[in-house]
Amino acid sequence: MNIKTLRHTTAKIALALMLACPWVASCSSDSPAAPYAGTRSLCFAVDNISIGSRVSHDGYKSAFEEGDKIGCVIIDTKKAGDDRYMANTCWEYNNDGFLILRKVFDANNALQNLTDNTIITPDAVKAAEGEEWIKLANDEAAYKMLFYYPYTGFDEIKEELQSATDASEISYPNVITDNLGDKNLDFISKNYLALPVGKTNSPSWVEPLSLAWTCYPTFVNINQSVKAGFNRSEFMYATSTPTNTSGTINLKFSKKMAEFEVDCDVELSGVFFQNATNGVVRGRAFDFSSDKFTTIEYSYEWNAPIFRKEANVITKEKFIPHYHNGKYRLILPAQDAFACQLNFTIEGNQYSIALEQNITELKENHLYIIHINKAGECTIKINDWQDDGSGVIVDKDETN
């Protein structure tokens, strides 16, 4: 019996005793607070991630790490259009595999009282069983939960920015070069490609900043060498439509990005990916309401949001991968008409491999495995994580 089952079995026994002997609860001086208006008591458990996207990956499987922040857009499917949008919420992953509700922002981006709001709250009645239990506070709404990783919060952006001493310490996708500026709202709006999800785009002078949930920009970092920058280049998604029944809901996140993995028979150095002529797509827009990506429309106005500027959406800069356990990994958005060179050095000799000779597009939830031999020649395999992450090669095994 795993820890999730044990904890919740114990909880059911305790609840049965209380129902059988109601005077035990009513006479206690430590009786719980009155329940909220909602009647559904739920908790969310995360299945093992069958995708090797995290730095802590084990082959083709991985798991969230304790303290990881995961977002969730909550909508009411009884309504239409933007009226469906109820809240953006922040959850924290714990070592037992559960998500803990930490913050609730309503449709106006206003931070709500966590224990007293009309959308979602911790379940005070079940607090002794574990802080993972929550209440859906509005029984009139038809809830749908749209979970995503990574969560991007305005407070978290500001905290990291204030503590950073140079641009390399910023892990949220950005266009910062060397100057960290005044570290104020104006600086964030002009340099950050990652901002919180909201019902609509908030004006650039209003705190907290937010970007619309139906056209939400998702960008990767150009430099993914640092663990946090690599993880925040990821985008994973899971949905849940709670029924009228209380209980535990298991979430299975799907990978919405593509990823490269590079290893070699000998030591590599100077590894980077680049298309210096036409560029590589760095960002796309995600529609939470349809679970689909769209192409970001460019704007050439001087005051256009930075995520709509062509030079930021398609970049000619060098992508630096993350090195971990003898392998280089790089996350990129799925894209058609892919063209990119993999550059590296072996024992002082420089090599450049045109990946488009074998890879003409990048697909969501696919791992592109590149093995390089001592002569600088590469074998390419494509792994589809769509099933259970077991490492099934689905496309090619070719030598360039």
Q: Could you name the ranges where pLDDT drops below 50 across 5 or more consecutive residues?
A: 9-37, 387-400
Major sheet characteristics? 6 strands, antiparallel
CA(first)-CA(last) distance:
49 Å
SS class: mainly beta
Strand residues, percent: 25-35%
According to DSSP, the number of beta strands is: 26
Give the rounded overall mean pLDDT. Answer: 84
Proportion of helical residues = 10-25%
How is the largest sheet built, in terms of strand order?
4-3-2-7-11-13
Task: Throw out a few tags for this protein.
400 residues, 6 helices, 12% helix, 34% strand, disordered C terminus
Briefly summarize what is shown.
The chain is mainly beta and 400 residues long. Helices cover 12% and strands 34% of the residues. The strands form 7 sheets. The chain has a 6-stranded antiparallel sheet, with no helix packed on it.
Textual characterization of the structure:
- This protein has helices at residues 3-20, 22-26, 154-163, 185-191, 227-231, 310-313, and strands spanning 40-46, 69-76, 85-93, 99-106, 120-122, 134-136, 143-149, 197-198, 211-212, 216-219, 236-240, 247-251, 254-255, 257-264, 269-274, 280-281, 283-287, 292-294, 314-315, 322-324, 327-333, 341-346, 349-354, 366-372, 378-384, 393-399.
- It has six helices and 26 strands.
- Helix content is 12%, strand content 34%.
- The strands form seven sheets. The chain has a six-stranded antiparallel beta sheet with strand order 4-3-2-7-11-13, with no helix packed on it. Strands 20-21-14-24-25-26 form a six-stranded mixed beta sheet, with no helix packed on it. The protein has a four-stranded mixed beta sheet with strand order 5-6-1-12, with no helix packed on it.
- The protein is mostly beta strands.
- The protein starts with a helix and ends with a strand.
- It is globular and about 65 Å long.
- Residues 9-37 and 387-400 have low confidence and may be disordered.
